[in-house]
Specification:
Layout: H1 2-11, E1 20-24, H2 27-41, E2 48-50, E3 61-65, H3 66-71, H4 74-77, E4 85-88, H5 100-105, E5 110-113, H6 140-145, E6 168-169, E7 172-173, H7 175-182, H8 186-199, H9 215-227, H10 241-246
Parallel strand pairs: 1-3, 1-4, 2-3, 4-5
Antiparallel strand pairs: 6-7
Length: 250
């Protein structure tokens, strides 16, 4: 969607030099995005990457990770009006401190934020950067009805884990305390595995993705799954790209 909108912007500014910036937090997304933009624009030379040690020849049309943006201090090398069109993918991350330099410094003609989760659990407001205007929106039921997403079955499993003593902070549980309660909880992990066996006809033919509270919790769940004969690996922000790419779950 963003590639087609940028194409429209280019066509309406044919006689002008347009500079473009695409920002996200992971290299994998940047690789996918630059390929998508080149396909839509029918220009296989469009854009350059700045991520993981890759240094572009030009900053005019840049696909950059937020980590590289900050480490290279682009806000000190460019003027506030340098970029005409800025896209921030996974914009729910923009409430983090790492995005504030970018958002407060640059003044593009168009700022486009993309996210599947505009309502943050911590209550931080991300719509303020757009005058509280949502340009385009599609929710899950409509996306499924339009065959844009695969229909799914949802099962809510009863969990009697006692969380009454876990501290509640700013719209969510204290992650450290929650991790302590959930990690090494053999009764709960046994229930999870039994539920998988109950609701899945062919566990060997299914690939799964589990979200955990902490790295320790993820490591523990991976260990329990492997012990139960369900191949599993724990991935987190510290997992090196080589190990991530080797994983069949990557």
């Amino acid at each position: 969607m963003s590639a087609f909108d940028f194409k429209r912007f280019l066509e309406s500014n044919k006689n002008k030099k347009i500079r473009f910036l695409f920002v996200v937090h992971r290299k994998e997304i940047l690789n996918q995005s630059i390929s998508c933009f080149r396909g839509v624009l029918k220009n296989h030379n469009f854009g350059e990457l700045m991520v993981g040690g890759i240094i572009p020849e030009s900053l005019d049309n840049l696909f950059v990770s937020i980590q590289s943006f900050n480490s290279k201090k682009l806000y000190k090398k460019l003027t506030p009006e340098f970029y005409d069109y800025i896209i921030i993918d996974e914009f729910h991350h923009a409430a983090a401190e790492s995005y504030q330099k970018l958002l407060s410094y640059f003044n593009p003609k168009i700022l486009l934020g993309l996210t599947a989760t505009p309502e943050r659990m911590d209550g931080k407001d991300i719509l303020k950067y757009f005058g509280r205007k949502i340009s385009a929106e599609i929710r899950l039921p409509e996306a499924i009805d339009r065959n844009l997403l695969v229909p799914f079955s949802y099962f809510g499993i009863s969990d009697d884990t006692d969380l009454s003593q876990v501290k509640w902070n700013k719209g969510g549980y204290d992650l450290k305390e929650l991790s302590t309660v959930l990690t090494y909880n053999k009764i709960r992990t046994s229930m999870i595995i039994k539920s998988l066996e109950k609701y899945l006809n062919d566990l060997d033919g299914v690939r799964g993705l589990g979200f955990c509270v902490s790295k320790e919790h993820a490591d523990y769940m991976s260990k329990i799954f492997n012990e139960a004969g369900i191949p599993s690996i724990s991935l987190d922000c510290d997992t090196c790209n080589e190990d991530r790419n080797k994983s069949k779950f990557a």
